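Practice set, problem 2.
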Amino acid sequence: MTDKITNWTSADDAMVENAIRRGASRRELLKMLLAGGAAVAAGSVVLGRATNAVAATPVSGGSFKAAGWSSSTADTLDPAKASLSTDYVRCCSLYNRLTFLDKEGVTQMELAESFDSKDAKTWTVKLRKGVTFHDGKALTADDVVFSMKRHLDPAVGSKVAKIAAQMTGFKAVDKSTVEITLADPNADLPTILALHHFMIVADGTTDFSKGNGTGAFVLQTFEPGVRSVVTKNKNYWKSGQPYLDSFEFIAISDDSARVNALLSGDINFAASINPRAMKLIGGQQGFELSKTTSGNYTDLNIRLDMDPGNKADFVAGMKYLVNREQIVKSALRGLGEVGNDQPVSPANIFHNADLKPKAFDPDKAKFHFQKSGLLGQSIPVIASDAATSSIDMAVIIQAAGADIGMKLDVQRVPSDGYWDNYWLKAPVHFGNINPRPTPDILFSLLYASNAPWNESQYKSEKFDKLMIEARGSLDQAKRKEIYGHMQTMVSEEAGTIIPAYISNVDALSSKVKGLEANPLGGMMGYAMAEYLWLEA
């Protein structure tokens, strides 16, 4: 038997180290290694190397203080009702999910030990043993059933009620086994349950003020709209974690004030700062910037059912008029990746990298505008600070139009009321979409014929059928092929122009270690407190 490993890379080493940090058992790790092509002997070598690497890195102890950008008196500790980033950060520190997404966008197990199905419709979930809530209660299948059913109760007001509606049956087979039945097959269920709202709470919970979860931290203080303080869960089921003794999270809405709080030492971490505030960090010693691109984007929406979007040549002209490289360089100050007019970002394992962005070509744009009969006419374009960088994007597109005689009337409207009064309504306007973990969620939400947020009113029977086919298949290669084709359809046929995937930038003390990217968003998908440590 050979000691060599076929196609084993540093990324595979990182995957094993990450699994160790998340509490994977030796049996699970060896299974992962064998699946990756490692022989038993070689697997033991890799496992030893990874274990040593992990053990040598983190440092336990210390108090960590971070500031986000948003908060409200409606802040909540109920995962089902979480709506702001501050809610997600708190919930990730207090609770666990059945599954989670790693930095590569791959679905991994958390409270679930396994997630199996033969038909993508009936799923059997085996739970980890030895997991307890903060109050000492052992985790059982009843807790999972209760947590899932809450999303279907209108009185709860779950933010993922529509996503959860596909789950039609729940059964506690035994204390550590749950059966979940779907209305229709969906191979993405394990990934869907990695969303922040699907945290597991104790059976029968109605009072969430204590934040009683199975997570890495125990709640000490919660002041909605102000701050939260949590301390290390000494009985946490993941061995050796968390590293921090305590974690305090506050909100400072002003970017410059948030960075100044970091520079003055009041906080260790300033989340999601804009390019202008980045200059305050400059060459300051002892501070760093962390850039991640996880799928957030601002798009230009042209409604296909209204004038001028009902003229196909106008839409084609606009796609050639958008200088994607310039938008990344100027509007986003380099903090983004060029987009190819579809919502599945490079952070997603189903991203179609073969689909090239439309080239900036003013001559072709002018040809299509002339063909549409709109060249020289004034076309209103609605932009607002509510949609990140949309005003800067609009000005760049407007200038390109002016060079060829296309008059784009950029109308800047207030942030207040933008999403109610202009988004989805105006003939030509901007939107801003947060990361979603699966192509199916993005397509169902934004591009299906009956999508609630169908920004350009794109309708395609073929697209709808492909979406259902991909959703129900357990063949990952087939799903990737279908999703790749659907991305091409959106790029070529829909009225949404996605010039770039926007990067999130966090500023932090150089003493903060362990920060990684995550496809669910900044701050490690809002779960950073469990995995960070402070350098001694």
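Problem 2, part (b): a different protein.
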Amino acid sequence: MIITGDALIGGKAVKGTGAGVRAYNPALGQVIEPEFRTVDASQIDQACRLADEAFDAYRALSDDKRATFLETIGEQIMALGDVLVERVMEETSLPRARVEGERGRTVGQLKLFANLLREGSWHDVRFDKALPDRTPPRPDLRMRMIGLGPVAVFAASNFPLAFSVAGGDTASALAAGCPVVLKAHFAHPGTSELVGRAVVKAVEICGLPAGVFSLLTGVGNELGIELVRHPAIKAVGFTGSRGGGMALVAAAAARPVPIPVYAEMSSINPVFLLPEALKNRAEDIATGFAASLTMGVGQLCTNPGLLLAIDGPDLQRFTAAASQALVGGAACSMLSPGIAGNFARGVNQLAEHADVTTLALAPQAEGKGAPALFVSSAASFLSQHALQEEIFGPASLVVVCKDVAELRQVAEKLEGQLTATLMMDEGDLEAAQSLLPVLERKVGRILANGYPTGVEVCSAMVHGGPFPSTSDGRSTSVGTGAITRFLRPVCYQNLSQALLPEVLRDNGSATWLRREGELTRN
């Protein structure tokens, strides 16, 4: 498949009229053809209006037909073969194994939501039958969930497949019955076009309205703000920086009709090294930590950027082993020059900070990221917010505490996070119990004796957390729960069987339903 540099609007390839952008090969330091032009306001409007026109017909499809559509997208992505894999590698410097794994995850997410649609529980059907003899009488009441409407999705820089054109936000929105208008990421526009064309092909194969999916190309904050402000858009999915996410939140809130923004933004993912665990296996924990920190050159939203432990010889064993594992690490190409530049600035700021000591600092190189490990005291961490800021890359800070009480004090002061990890052995149970209530308030996923960089795509996964890890801590962007972001409830009172949606009829297709508050399976 030839990459043309086109946007895809209503099933048709169109050229933007604004500023141009070319992809960049970070490993070779070269721009990549072709040029992608930024879409203009009229093209954004066209994509949004077509999505709005497609909404009622698309959400009225049976669960099985929408499931088949999601599966067809996956099939079309796989049909791209090495053309897609090699373009991703060229635009990101990610190794083949990572790209192929991410492609599998992307297709797996689509299948996960297809299975959810066929299983049917997402409708959340509720029946409360009429009680005409009661005083006062109760009407017949039935409820189901429906899609919000067209969703604007912003592709992520660090996951060019799994959090991008056909990634989790797109898959969950399409599963909910919501057309998607996708803003491609400027760092991997060729990858975006290839996957976008696969989605458009699936739309054609399944005979769906062309407005179910559009892909917008280009650069500049104005493009994203214009998209979020469009009255046809009813929700937003975003993965990126805190500044970018908050700009979209502000734009959405300022609309005449405000809409929800589900933005995943920043997290330092604290790891609590509890005393017995450090005593028994400090070196093993250090080895696993180093591998987790450097995975993907640290460009993962669940990267363990903060370690908290009680001072003593066991912590010194850990820091010595971790430093040894990291200091010889090679500098590797990062996803883009912008990400590499921000990482270098963050590392330099910590290295030069008066209250921070450098434990390990592998040789740095322009455009690349090399491992770095620092240490500071709990008192400094608590008094200086700058030490809590995310450094997107393979860098982490050890915070040394006096005792479990100070560990808990630091935990109380943490911002909202995607994850928190408890490295613990049996003797650490009491300390873990004291931390757990705090962590439940602070994070979306709590791990024991693992590393947060593995995000399983399954029903129970939560990839979200209190602000600022996400703009709405009640949501997840991974797992079947992600569909609820793009749904809302509708209640039907005293409607005849002929007018009721099929899933709400007395002998309807609801697999799971609540009758008088009791969950049952048909």
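Answer key, part (b): The mean pLDDT is 96. The two ends are 46 Å apart (CA to CA).
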